[in-house]
């Protein structure tokens, strides 16, 4: 969606637009680095923290964002007694920007990865030929 695209932009932050927003902690550490050296996950994290800081009265923190596989969702599964889970996502595009979700899933003992099917990794014409 559009917000995800914007949060991945290197030019999301400029001093003039953010000079009245008090910034501290992890976001400052990321801002001090050259944008070209930030990974997609770091860039998304930096911009998400900036957006939250500017509108913290109106929105939850970035760790609680997300429909689908999110930290919030993982915690709800755990609270409802799911001690084992296989979580599949359509692709890495959204997940690579939020590695904390994958890390937490791993810590909880959940199997986490992209969706795959037999036919997407095996040529169907070879079915039954693996003697």
How would you sum up this structure, described in words?
By secondary structure, the chain is mainly alpha-helical. The protein folds into 2 domains: 2-60, no CATH class; 66-121, no CATH class. 40% of the residues lie in helices and 6% in strands. It has a two-stranded parallel sheet with strand order 1-2. The longest helix is centred in the middle third of the chain and has 15 residues, at 40-54.
Oligomer: single chain
Question: Major sheet: size, sense and barrel closure?
Answer: 2 strands, parallel
Number of domains: 2
Structural class: mainly alpha
Total E-strand runs? 2
Strand order of the largest sheet: 1-2
Specify the overall morphology: globular
Order of helices and strands: HHHHHEHEH
Hey, roughly how much beta strand do the residues contain? Answer: 5-15%
InterPro entries: GH101-related
Write the layout of secondary structure elements.
Elements: H1 2-7, H2 15-18, H3 26-31, H4 40-54, H5 71-79, E1 86-89, H6 99-107, E2 111-114, H7 118-121
Question: How would you briefly describe this protein structure?
Answer:
The protein contains 7 helices and 2 strands, in the order αααααβαβα. By secondary structure, it is mainly alpha-helical.
Main traits of this protein?
mainly alpha, 2 domains, two-stranded parallel ribbon, 7 helices, 2 strands
């Amino acid at each position: 969606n559009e917000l995800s695209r914007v949060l991945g932009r290197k030019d999301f932050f400029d001093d003039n637009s953010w000079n009245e927003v008090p910034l501290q902690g992890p976001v400052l550490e990321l801002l001090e680095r050259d944008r070209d050296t930030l990974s997609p996950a770091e860039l998304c994290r930096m911009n998400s923290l900036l957006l939250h800081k500017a509108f913290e009265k109106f929105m939850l923190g970035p760790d609680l964002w997300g429909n689908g596989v999110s930290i919030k969702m993982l915690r709800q599964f755990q609270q409802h007694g799911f001690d084992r889970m296989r979580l599949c996502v359509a692709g890495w595009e959204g997940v690579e920007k939020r590695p904390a979700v994958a890390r937490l899933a791993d810590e909880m003992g959940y199997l986490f990865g992209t969706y795959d099917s037999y036919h997407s990794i095996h040529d169907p014409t070879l079915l039954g030929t693996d003697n």
